[in-house]
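S1.2 Input.
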Amino acid sequence: MKTLVVYTHPNHQSLSYAFLQKTILGLSENPRVEEVQMVDLYGESFDPILVFNDHTRRRDMHVVPELAKYREQLLWADKIVFVYPIWWGRPPAMLLGYIDRMFASNFAYRDGKGLIPEGLLKGKSVVVVSTMKGPTFYPLLWLNNAHKVLMRRALLRYVGIKSVKFFEFGSMEKPHGKQARNLERIYRYFRKVAH
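S1.3 Output.
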């Protein structure tokens, strides 16, 4: 199982970074994992800004040279793991910019004759590890599960990825927010996870 970890947080002293470290540790001890690659979007100064003009056309997004490395990673991976905080009920703008630029037509999906396009990333699985200040039930009761709907339905199913697992850890800024227990849970999950 080849695994790509996409990390999105500007601070390496953050709780999100601690979850990243536990994810990597668990994967490194998992005999089913063949290789792990990691993308630190802030650390790599990924450019999340879409530019369309006379020289850069939307229809050519899937062949932008500066994104070749990231396209190769997504094609290479059997499993994609996203690690990020939930801000304002959604992923950070940096990650949304990565999604805008990477999950392009003729790379992640292909328009067909019907209403639903053909997903070109079929067969892959995704795990989302996210933290938030508010309680765990907040996205479900207050935001109608907007985060999961965005990631699972609007993005991943659209590109052909059906296997999606979420870890949404709430109350993570409280002194007794069960941070240690949740970090251990993530470590154990990735140490044993199969495709």
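S1.4 Remarks. The longest helix spans residues 15-28.
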